[in-house]
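Session log. Operator J.P. requested a structure for one protein chain; no other inputs attached. Running the standard single-chain path with token output.
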Amino acid sequence: MKKFRVNNIEMPSLLPYLELTDTKFRLNFSLISQDSSILEKSPFPFLVISESDPFSRLIKAQLVTDAGSEIKRVFLLLQKDEYHLTRDELRPFSNQDIDQYWQKAFLFYSRKNQDGSAIILADQIGEDGGLISLQSLFFCKSKLIFFHPPCPVCGLPLQQCYDDDILTGLGFQRYSTSLKRYLFCPSCFGSTGKSDFYVFSLESSDHSALKNRWNLIKDFGCVTEVKNRLNRFPCINCSSRQECYGSDCLAASRIVPLSFYPFYMLIFEAVSVNAFDFLSLISGASFDDLESRLSEKQELGRINCLKALKQNSLATTPFFFDKNKKYFLEVLYLKLSFLGELVQTIFSRIDDPGFGLSIDRIWINLTDQSGLLPFFWNFKLKFIDIGGNAVKPPFLPKLFPYSSPHFLGIIWFYTLLVNKKQDVSEVYVTLGEKIEKIVSNDDDNPESFLKNGSDGVFSPENIFWIPDGKTVCQDWMRLWEKSIGLGWSLLKIGLRTGVMENSKWSKDKFQQELENLRKEVKDKLFSHELNFVQTEPAPRNKAIYDILAKIMEKWSIGLDAQKDELEKTAGVSTASSEQFDNTNVVSQDENGIEETVILLPDDFRKEKSPSIQAEENDIPATVVITPSEKSTLSSIKKNSGQPEENDFISETVILYPENSSDKR
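Structure written below.
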């Protein structure tokens, strides 16, 4: 990265990385379109992935070779020109605070023990080891080139004014105590004491002498060949110069600042998808459904991520059990895994005052899909932000740690309960009502929170993107209630001052409980047990159901009577330790018709059929006596002198299974 020196001030520039140099690769910003007519109508032509952070925006880019081949997709975290904050005297912010946030974020992401996702440029690092801001950059949408904004008077690059004395002397706001920033020409001001001062946009309270970005772009027409001292302003020799700065004044629609002011920037390896979209996908949402919803919000960057993800996942299996009732367990397991990683990340950074808390800035990286697991089972969570909104205030420092468990509790219920039919506002309203009742009754135990489990908002079917028509096995309700209970344990920490110190709650204990629950869900998910759920029949089948129930009841009574009669007739008893005697159960009536004898399981505790050479522990539920064995047994009975007319010949012996486990 080349550094320009103006008035002995070093100004790091990103320009050399945006052009082909001796390194033979460059940084390529993604645009919302390749159509110049569309770009000219766009106020910001770069593909923004997210603008949720009030101090920065996330932009998509690529590292490419001199032949245009993509080396790596990256996300650029760039400082914003305008901060979307409301003025609050109780929590004032200033430019120096923002500078501090960037420095702390840089130190965090550049630590050796991080995962290496941050890409650090050597010339971004100052002599003190801190992060250096880069020179302002403007972009021509017509010619697709970047340039530094020149002073319209002398042609030297404009700079940001950090001198509070100069600013207050001109009636402007201080840099150190406000969020106002100003561009000016230090060369002109130093030599003549005069310079135009520019801001990104004018406010009603601004000084009348200030100019905005549109004034600056128009003033670029005053830069001549003589003034172009650094020979870096592209409009000088451009064939469209007259169109841009003549009567048509097209420069205002063709030129846009990538960053009007000098800016901080951090580079990260691109991740796959935002946490919002990931949670929707694992709940069963389709790509088309999410793209449609994002289109309404003009979230082009997130749509781009979804399209790339959809293209990469076409040939893969997203889940194990998405066509099975166990899909509930699978979704619950994946969401608990997401929450587990989130908990670990936040608890490991809870004391870092530069760490911001917002689900908008949580991103999911779906790892290499060459493995054998389904597509959504390989993921890693990452925060990408500078965390300015979570800086520890100078007063009441003990209040800060409570915000993290409370934030986790909010995300917890969002993760489990928000879907296409139920938005987060409905969940928050119900949570607020429950919390208000519990606090008013001075009862914060989980049972009080869950006692109204019939509330539709907390129904386990809400874990699905489309809950209508979904059912959840009753055997799994305990796992769902445990999941809700863990979320409640996070929320209740912030209900009273000092509750964290006075309760038995701890981060380690909570993480262990979460891990135990996650393991229990996983074991249930991959178990081979069959779960039978008796459900109420549909109305149209009720009549048939009642008839069958009565028939079964009659059969049950009849079978009990037959069982008693057969016990008396067969005369089989296992009370003693003698071996089972087939002669007591095998007989033939006068017509030679074979009959079935039903024996109680107690009758087979110690006896076994001589025709079946099995161990006592392997007594089958059905014992079959072949015709040859039947003849042999008949001969034995004849020789023993037993009468044949009272014998019962049985090919099948049915054992009642109620106590069959006693011998297994």
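Operator note: The radius of gyration is 38 Å.
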